[in-house]
Design goal:
The protein is α/β, with parallel strands linked by helices. Among the domains are: 264-352, Alpha Horseshoe (Serine Threonine Protein Phosphatase 5, Tetratricopeptide repeat); 370-497, no CATH class; 507-630; 640-855, Rossmann fold (3-Layer(aba) Sandwich). The chain has 35 helices and 18 strands. The strands form four sheets. Strands 3-2-1-4-7-18-17-16-12-8-11 form an eleven-stranded mixed sheet, with helices on both faces. It is globular. It starts with 5 loop residues before the first helix and ends in a 7-residue tail after the last strand.
Length: 862
């Protein structure tokens, strides 16, 4: 599967023999008693693999398997056989290997407890690089069985592997706890291999979080422990992660020196796979230094080793890097030759076409630079068509997230190409398709698929994917779409985002829906530069910005500062200068609508600083998933009357202090109870008093999910939910609001994204006065959150928070907001004036910048 950003870390720690990782069972000393030659061979192999020396162990397992079969010891033969799958996983598709292991578990020989446990361990190892959710569950089974059989070293390692899976899934808190626990256990028990493993992956995780100096301490500990052990395998994870940490610190000489030392210290020539990885890392270091000729030399050497090994994944991945390096050097014909080789290599592993869209886009860029715009555009469209097919048939959430990450990059490059050609209308449509596709995919419900034999439909789709890769016949794309529809992998998506992804609203139509005082800013983060489209009712311009990675880093730092209840005026000014100052129209339009990208989804624009004051003072800000969604929202029939109807819900206890709310098991496994919200009762009651229309308030025990869903919700114009919220970082459609417990009710008290989308609303405004309601697992791909789910359900706009703020200030902010609404202010300005009141009281952005309006913020609620 592909690996970028967070999942580059995932592949580093999950790649099996290439990263020389993981575990084996340890039964006392060995898995089987050394009773004969085969037992001795297997015991020796167990020692090697326990210390991560899988390539050395593999031939011994092969001999042991052969001898066990001759001796009629089928249980031991199966044990040795599955142990060989680790090496096979380096060059063979993962899904068939997992299917083979699943079948092995059902064999009579697998009833042997040690063999059964062995199969689960190997399965968990391989799943880590396929689907972390499956891996986590498998390692949970290993942990139970290891405890039952008193394999205490394995027990500690199983917990650590669940921590690695948690990190890949985005649960950094759980990951840190489990990996640190496994690390400390390994040090205490003298398990050097595990000590190296978990110090390495902990350090690699810190590198991914850009905590480079902290990472170096853990990585150096791993490297030093391995160097003092005669048994432990070469610490490739730690070495490669340290190179990345040094790159992050821009300490390029030391990074290159470490890479050269690693090459010298590789213990055997059969570790060519390690050499491939280090050569690729060296190329990336030289690329950062803009030493393009040296980068090309390293990538070329890495490609040679990948060819030598028949490691087609390596050819596919490094081929893309090498082609880009040639492009940057102006050697376009050489770049075309390399990228064609990478695309051809991908056809050798047809079950892993996930890099092909990116490589097709690289080829399109090369052709664009050669002046072959027509061919370039055809390749870009071909790349996007292949993305659609791969997303429709993605086997796991991991794969889907990675495809979405790559898709953003491909779309943004196509956008830049069209802008250079002067086709701003086509560029706008392209990026709108991207934003719609990402949002629509996030709203889809896609469980992990257990590996299985390919169906006839899946084989047909795989062949059509290959046909698209091989030729430019548009009929192939049409046939592929028909096959996806027939197999029900591509269903009609009638959500706003789904419609946008296939039929974006034209630029002129969007402009027709903008008012004279409004400015729509659609951001596109990319490397080496980003863009923003500034769209008004009468104009559209594109402005170049700094690199997307730098913008993302600045935005994340600023958000963290605000969340910690601090201020950083210099950083606020810098973000203003990079994001808003270049836009001439910003000075002319007081109402700004933002279509964010990447980390900008979590950035409160109203807290940026211009001329010593927050932008909130001069402008109102709202957010929309895409310009097309905004236009569609404004095209919806407006059915509300002149007198708003209101429903307020607060599940907090009615007492003055409030009591903790007991969380249902299905809501969260992280806590038994949630803090009380004592101000929420007064909040919803006070808001009701501002409006003269019909109102309903559900408090305490009456604020149940069943009660709420039983109401004629499509008759309410204002819906205010003062409830706890939860953003599920693993599965976005499980993000939810928590209602009051209802033991006798038919519902579980948890209204999740899937259920919200099934509601039928016609509300002008839904307010989610709760915790983290605007936050999904954003950064990899802008995953659906609760607010967007309410928009899809029919709400015209949603007010939500980007982080948890304390109850009393939330209540004050909300009551001021609704008071302003009752005076016929439009939604964006009503929120702005409420925030200004909190600001004028001397409170920092933490207390007011979290809350934002999503969707259509124009117009009043009456």
């Amino acid at each position: 599967m592909p690996g970028t950003s967070t999942h580059k870390w995932a592949m580093l720690v999950g790649a099996v023999t290439l990263a020389a990782t993981l575990l084996v069972l340890r039964y006392g000393k060995h898995g089987h008693h050394a009773e004969n030659g085969a037992d001795v061979l297997c015991a020796h192999a167990d020692d090697l693999s326990w210390n991560n020396r899988w390539l050395d162990a593999d031939p011994l397992y092969a001999q042991a398997e052969y001898q066990f079969l001759r001796q009629g010891e089928s249980e031991k033969a199966l044990y040795a056989h599955v142990s060989r799958l680790i090496v096979r996983a380096d060059s063979e598709p993962i899904a068939p290997l997992l299917l083979e292991l699943q079948r092995d578990l059902s064999l009579p020989e697998a009833t042997n407890p040690e063999t059964h446990l062995r199969i689960l361990v190997i399965k968990g190892m391989i799943e880590t690089n396929y689907d972390a959710a499956l891996a986590r569950d498998t390692w949970g089974q290993v942990q139970i069985l290891a405890k039952r059989r008193r394999h205490y070293l394995l027990l500690a390692r199983a917990a650590g592997e669940q921590g690695i899976a948690a990190f890949i899934l985005g649960d950094v808190g759980t990951a840190k706890k489990l990996v640190l626990r496994a690390w400390l256990a390994a040090k205490y028990l003298g398990d050097d291999a595990a000590h190296v493993r978990y110090a390495s992956v902990y350090g690699a995780g810190l590198v991914e979080l850009e905590r480079y100096n902290d990472a170096l301490k853990a990585l150096d500990e791993a490297i030093n422990t391995a160097s003092h052990s005669q048994k432990v395998a070469y610490p490739s994870i730690a070495v490669n992660a340290k190179i990345d940490a040094l790159r992050g610190l821009r300490n390029y000489p030391e990074a290159l020196a470490l890479a050269d030392e690693a090459i010298r210290r590789l213990p055997a020539t059969h570790l060519d796979a390690h050499l491939y990885q280090i050569l690729t890392s060296k190329g990336e270091v030289y690329g950062d230094e803009e030493n393009r000729s040296s980068a090309i030399a390293q990538y070329t050497a890495a490609m040679e080793y990948a060819r030598h090994l028949g490691y087609w994944r390596g050819v596919v991945q490094t081929g893309g890097l090498l082609a880009k390096a040639y492009e940057n050097e102006g050697k376009l014909s050489e770049g075309l030759k390399v990228i064609d080789e990478a695309i051809e290599a991908n056809q050798r592993i047809p079950q892993e076409l996930y890099f092909s869209p990116r490589n097709l886009a690289i080829k399109a860029e090369l052709l664009d630079n050669l002046g072959k715009q027509k061919q370039s555009r055809m390749l870009h469209e071909k790349s996007l068509r292949l993305f659609d097919a791969l997303l429709a048939s993605a086997p796991t959430p991991n794969t889907e997230r990675e495809l979405l990450n790559q898709m953003r990059e491909v779309y943004s490059r196509y956008f830049e190409s069209l802008c250079r050609e002067g086709h701003l209308d086509l560029a706008f449509a392209t990026i709108e398709r991207a934003h719609g596709r990402i949002e629509a995919q996030a709203l889809s419900e896609r469980p992990s698929l257990v590996p299985h034999d390919p169906t006839a439909d899946e084989k047909r789709i795989e062949q059509l994917d290959l046909d698209i890769l091989k030729n430019d016949d548009p009929k192939t794309g049409t046939e592929l779409e028909r096959a996806l529809v027939e197999s029900r992998l591509l269903l009609g998506d009638t959500t706003l985002s789904g419609l946008t992804s296939h039929h974006p609203v034209p630029l002129l139509a969007v402009q027709a829906h903008l008012r004279a005082n409004e400015l729509l800013l659609e951001y596109v983060l990319d490397e080496p530069q980003s863009s923003v489209l500034a769209i008004t009712a009468t104009s559209a311009h594109r402005y170049e910005l700094i690199a997307g990675k730098e913008l993302g880093t600045l935005a994340a730092q600023y958000r963290k500062t605000i969340h910690n209840r601090k201020t950083d005026d210099a950083l606020g000014r810098r973000l203003f200068e990079q994001l808003l100052a270049p836009v001439v129209e910003y000075r002319l339009k007081p109402e700004v609508i933002v279509v964010p990208d990447g980390e900008l989804h979590l950035l409160p624009f109203a807290s940026l600083i211009e001329n010593g004051r927050y932008t909130l003072v001069t402008h109102s800000f709202s957010v929309t998933p895409s310009a097309s969604v905004l236009a569609m929202l404004r095209s919806r029939p407006q059915t509300q009357g002149t007198t708003p109807s209101y429903i307020g819900v607060a599940a907090s206890d009615n007492s003055e202090q409030g009591k903790p709310i007991v969380a249902p098991v299905s809501f969260s496994d992280r806590a038994d109870s949630l803090r009380p919200l004592p101000s929420s009762k007064k909040e919803v009651q006070t808001i009701a008093s501002y409006f003269h229309g019909p109102s309903l308030v559900l408090l305490g025990a009456d604020a149940t999910e069943s009660r709420f869903k039983s109401l004629p919700l499509n008759t309410y114009n204002l819906i205010h939910l003062a409830l706890h919220g939860h953003a599920d970082i693993e599965y976005s459609d499980r993000s939810a609001l928590l209602f009051a417990p209802d033991p006798g009710g038919k519902d579980d008290g948890v209204l999740d994204v899937r259920e919200i989308r099934q509601l039928r609303l016609k509300a002008s405004l839904v307010t989610l006065s709760s915790c983290d309601t605007g936050v999904g697992p954003i950064s990899e791909a802008d995953v659906a959150n609760l607010a967007n789910a309410f928009i899809e359900a029919g709400a015209q706009s949603v007010v939500a928070s980007l982080w948890d703020i304390e109850d009393q200030t939330t209540a004050q902010l909300m009551t001021l907001f609704y008071k302003n609404l009752s005076l016929h202010e439009n939604k964006a300005n009503a929120l702005r004036d409420a925030q200004l009141h909190i600001l004028e009281a001397g409170l920092p952005p933490y207390y007011w910048a979290s809350v934002e309006v999503l969707g259509d913020a124009s117009g009043s609620v009456a």
